[in-house]
Structures are given as C-alpha cells and as structure tokens.
Amino acid sequence: RSRIHDFYNIDHVLSKVKLANKILVITGAGISTSLGIPDFRSSKGFYSKLESLGLSDPQEVFDLELFHTDPSIFYSIAFMILPPENIHSPLHSFIKLLQSKQKLLRNYTQNIDNLESYAGIHPDKLIQCHGSFAFATCVTCQYKVKGEKIFPAIRNKEIAYCPKCNSTRLKLLKNDEVSYLPESYGVMKPDITFFGEALPRKFHDSIKKDLLDCDLIISIGTSLKVSPVADIIERVPPKIPQVLINRDPIDHCNFDVSLLGYCDDVASHLCQKLGPKWNIPHPKYS
Ligand code: OAD
C-alpha cells in the first residue's frame, strides 16, 4: 500500500477522528486483556497455556472436527477464556463514545467475550465476526440457550449437555448402545465460530458495503493473523486512512499511523487531546 495522503502522526489521527462520521473499528483480544482475559498469541496468551493438551497446533481447540470427536478437550480449557459478566474496559467505552457521537460506522470484533454488548454497542453497529459466548446451541437438535446456562459446566471443566437431548443420551448409554453414539451427541457448543465453520452471515452481508462507506479505519488490539478479518485491511480503498492502536507493531499490514501502547491508555490520550467533550465514561460494574 503506497502512501497517497499526508497522514502519519497523532495530530493527523486527531483531525481525522474529528472529521470522520463513518469509522470502521476492527477489534481483537487486546481490548479485553486489561480485564484479565488473556489474548491468544502473546507469550502469556491463551495458546501458550495449552501445551499440556499435546495438540500439534493450539488453535485446534477451536477446530470443529476435533470438537465433534472429543468435546472434552474444549471443555477442559474453555474456563480460561470465559468472559466476566457486566464489565468492560475503557477501550470498549471509547468505541461506545464513537457511537454516541454518531461516528461509528461499525465495530468488527473478533472477540467472543460479548463485552461490546455490556458496553452498550448497538447490535446494528456490531459484527461479532467469530460469534460469541452469548448463546450456545446443541450440536444434535440445535436447541439454543443463553450462554450463561453453560457457564457452570465450563467453570467445572465439564461437558455441557443439551437439556432436551440428555435424557435420550443417558438412555442410549444405559442400554449399552454406546457404539451408536457419537462423542458429541447432545453436546452444547457455544456459538463461537470454530475453524471449519463459516463466519456469521452478518459479516459477509456488511463488509463489502462498509468498506465502500467508511471514512477511517481503526484497528485495535489484534494481531490480524486470522482471515477473513485480517484481510479487511488490504481490501480498504487506498484513500481511506488506516490507524493501528496496538501494544505490538503489526509488520504485515501497512498502516498509515501506528499508535503503539496499551489501548486503554492510547484511547484516553486521544480523548484528552480531542477535548472536554471526549470524556471516556468510567466503565460500569454492575
Ligand atoms: P491475538 O492474541 O492474536 O492478538 C492480540 C493482539 O493484541 C496482539 O498483537 C497484542 O500485542 C495486542 N494486545 C494485547 N494486549 C493489549 C493491550 N492491552 N493494548 C493493546 N494491544 C494489546 O488475538 P486476536 O488478533 O484477537 O478466534 O486473535 C484473532 C482470533 O484468533 C480470535 O478471535 C480467536 C483466535 O483464534 C476465536 O476465538 C475463534
């Protein structure tokens, strides 16, 4: 991507944010780490904690086929990324502030913690590209429950079973018909997009149009390693300024401006510079 506009420092970011009214915000795990939720690929991230599972690639914990073969693997580690409820970070508040100021076109989040909803990001403004823990669905009968219903099982590192299918499952097991029973029979799967699953329709329905409509891109707290979200950056028309806010530099994408640091701090700094009407409300704990 060659630079076609004079846009390379924080003052330019501030002036673009002031002028913009269709900001496309891409977010990842880094916006929730200040709440104690690990990101995925950092040295102390979620994937670094999975060595004992003996997988060839830790990403396999989100592999659909493996989930069907042995759901206990996912349920043995999911507690580590279980989202806290009714809490969000200052960065979530920053996105909410962009929304309140009619500047947010859309927030494409790769996060599955659903904290954007607690922060008050409107469902129309939010694309949860990799689904979320907000709901869970039975892999056998598709019965859906609120995510919280399976949180106790996740905390106990136990497989969550479907309230509708479980009696049949137990009957089949009792009658020694185990050989007919797939491991994942009647298992609840959180509505997270696993590798091997299509992204939610909403993503594909919105992204093309949003790429044409947006007037600024801000990517925050993501390593941009997973497609198709990672590919958004290279699909952006060259005239649209692209800003990175991240703890670590992202070398494989050519951002116009990289504001490196903890995203809560960078956002607070930006808001301070934007003026008194840009107070990030203190996150509510309810
Ligand atoms: P990664 O763990 O790959 O990247 C997180 C990025 O956030 C890193 O570049 C960190 O430097 C940065 N970071 C961490 N804490 C930060 C902070 N406080 N402030 C600013 N930056 C910070 O996570 P994602 O890019 O979100 O898929 O990962 C994308 C997808 O890969 C996830 O959605 C997940 C995973 O497989 C599923 O859950 C299905």
TrEMBL record:
GO terms for molecular function: histone H3K14 deacetylase activity, NAD-dependent; histone H3K4 deacetylase activity, NAD-dependent; histone H3K9 deacetylase activity, NAD-dependent; histone H4K16 deacetylase activity, NAD-dependent; metal ion binding; NAD+ binding. It is found in: Nucleus. Signal peptide: none annotated. Keywords: Metal-binding, NAD, Nucleus, Repressor, Transcription, Transcription regulation, Transferase, Zinc. This is SIR2-domain-containing protein. Zn(2+) binds at residues 138, 141, 162, 165. The active site is at 130 (proton acceptor). Its main location: nucleus. One of its GO terms (biological process) is pericentric heterochromatin formation. Residues 3-277 form the Deacetylase sirtuin-type domain. Belongs to the sirtuin family. Class I subfamily. Its cofactor is Zn(2+). One of its GO terms (cellular component) is rDNA heterochromatin. The lineage of its organism: Eukaryota, Fungi, Dikarya, Ascomycota, Saccharomycotina.
